[in-house]
Amino acid sequence: MDTEACVEQAIRIIEAGGELVRITAPGVKDAENLKYIHKALRERGYDTPLSADIHFISDAALVAAQYVEKVRINPGNFVDRRATFQELNYSDEAYAAELVVLKKRFTEFLDICRQYGTAVRIGTNHGSLSDRIMSRYGDTPAGMVEATLEYLRVCQSEHFDHVVISLKSSDCRLMVEAVRLLAKKMNSEGMEYPLHLGVTEAGEGEDGRIRSAIGIGTLLNEGIGDTIRVSLTEAPEKEIPVARALVGICSQPKFEKSGELLKGDCSRPIIVADLSSLDVMDEAVSRKLGFEMGQVNDPVYGDRLHLGHKSPEMIYTETLGPELTKLPEETLVIVPLSLWDMAHVYNRNTGVLCDVEEFLGGVKLEKTIPVFVQISDKYDLDVSLAKQLKKESDVTIVFSFGLNYHDYHDAYRQMELLGLKNQTLLFVEMGGMDKESVTLEIAARVGGLFLNRLPGGLWIRTTEIPEFEYALELSRNILQSAGVRRYKTEFISCPGCGRTLFDLEGTVSKVKQAFGHLQQMKIAVMGCIVNGPGEMGDADYGYIGAGNGKVNLYKGRALMYAAIPEEQAIEQLRVLIAEKSSVDV
Ligand code: SF4
After folding, report:
1. Among 142, 293, 325, 396, which residue's Cβ finds the most Cβ atoms within 10 Å?
2. Range 514-539 burial, b when 16+ CB lie within 10 A, else e
3. Cα separation of 348 and 362, whole Å?
4. Between 383-391 and 405-418, two packed helices, what is the crossing angle to 10 degrees?
């Protein structure tokens, strides 16, 4: 309703490179006001299309359609009531009767859109599926697809084609699976609607960027997606450079898809910390690797280190030294073949890295030494190499094809064809870019392979970023965002919109500070109780703005405390977590 502030914010988005501006319109009055926002922007010379975001109040959609270029409706609440998240049984008749009501109301809306030349986004969210859909499909990718198709079928029967579709979730895996499923279904049914991509409640900072890069990047790599939105709990104009970077990264046509995508079963990939840039291997390095000092004094080697919960399972080093003697027994040290003899003196748990030629030439080592063979060209994985790898099935393959998503898929397909069961690692080497670009490139290009559970581990080397901890942390964040490892509290937070009535960014940072040590938890910070409880998905706890300086606290989807004054809410959440979980808060 604050027209001037809204126009100013829209201009900041446009100036940053946004090509479409979406504005939430919670009610009919707000939808009416879009007319003035639209007019003011046009008067100032901005012709960027506007989209209205409508939930629950379908009358608002009918009004907004008269003033803006596109209206987004949510199939979970355009006609249906707020989902109850309870198990409901629908008879076939009751199910069909709801669809009749849906068709009638949606057709009225489409008629207005047709009259004004307004486009429609059918914007399905994982967290707000209707009871009807939940009763038959659950909150699954199939449920999200069916929720969308209910509306798409009406568009088809009404011959209304000015439609774009989105299926979003805060969970990258779910979002990617749902969009893939819909794309497949549309292909098989000859439908050609554009797809809009986004990961909802991605959060802020590096985590928000990585989640978005994995979700959006994976689909763009697969040739799916026409528009994107990176959803960050930051000022909206900050989303645009990230979005533009992702489009740049994933729309370079140099990598060609050459077949069906594979799914693997590696549900707990490991991390290799790359220490190749170091000249010394000392205690400071050990600490940065997350190793912790042991309790027992070893009479020969002194204090031994223990694994911490963030420690990498393997390290690669070209620098030898006494510090190697202290490493936790479980940590495997990988060294180049030329260093193996000496490295083995320092640490018996040492493996060697060799290339294909060295491997086929017969690496002369004791039988029990772990061997890692680096394959840098997918065509090297031929019958003769496969024969040797089969014979030595405990040899780990290190795939190293740069950032070529499809080459990795081809290699895994080739492994399947050749009947190879060897463990695999993904080795990625990057340089010549700043940290944010490196983060987006790697997450967008290869993060999807972990969603597909293909590689057994991740090994990142950043040649021009000297701190090895950066690559290590990036590896952890990619695996956590892909849902295959858990190293830290998972925070999800919405981007905020016209419904947010408190300082969302500041609150997220306070909540992170208070609960960042709860490694196994997922905590949501959401701007409003209209969509927050649904959209927080499977978060363990929710901190949700209830308006007027008040906050509602949730355990899962159950409301536990209502209207807590904002200044007491973090402490109350602490009490709630202590009551309901066996963790030290
Ligand atoms: S405040 Fe947050 S949860 Fe509520 S509608 Fe806006 S973006 Fe969604």
Report:
1. 396
2. bbeebeebbbbbbbbbbbbbbbbbbb
3. 21
4. 70
Q: Kindly indicate the confidence band of residue 536, based on its pLDDT and cuts at 50, 70 and 90.
A: confident
For ligand 1, atom 6, name the residue with the nearest CA: 497
Does residue 299 surpass a pLDDT of 70? no
pLDDT in tens, 79-116: 987 666 666 788 999 999 999 999 999 999 999 999 99
Cα(91) to centroid(ligand 1), Å: 33
End-to-end alpha carbon distance in the chain = 40
Measured distance CA(255)–CA(190) in Å, rounded: 26
CA of 547 to the centre of ligand 1 (A): 12
CA distances from 279 to 26, 347, 469 (A): 59, 18, 15
What residues does ligand 1 touch, defined as CB less than 6 Å away? 494-497, 499-500, 526-528, 530-532, 535
- Cα(387)–Cα(100) distance, rounded to whole angstroms? 61
Quote the pTM value: 0.93
Going along the chain from its start, the domains and CATH numbers come out as: 3-195 (3.20.20.20), 196-252 (no CATH), 270-481 (3.20.20), 490-580 (3.30.413.10)
Q: Is the pLDDT of residue 580 over 90?
A: no
| Pair 362, 337: CB distance under 8 Å | no
What region does 378 belong to: left with phi over 0, alpha with psi -120 to 50, or beta? Answer: alpha
Return all residues near 2 (Cβ < 8 A) that are at least 6 apart. Answer: none
Each residue of 142-193: pLDDT tens digit? 999 999 999 999 999 999 999 999 999 989 999 999 999 999 998 888 888 9
Distance CA 261, CA 241 (A): 29
Instruction: List Cβ neighbours of 210 (8 Å cut-off, separation of 6 or more).
Output: 439, 443, 447, 474, 477, 478, 481
Neighbours of 430 (CB within 10 A): 21
For the stretch 8-43, pLDDT in tens is 999 999 999 999 999 999 999 999 999 999 999 999
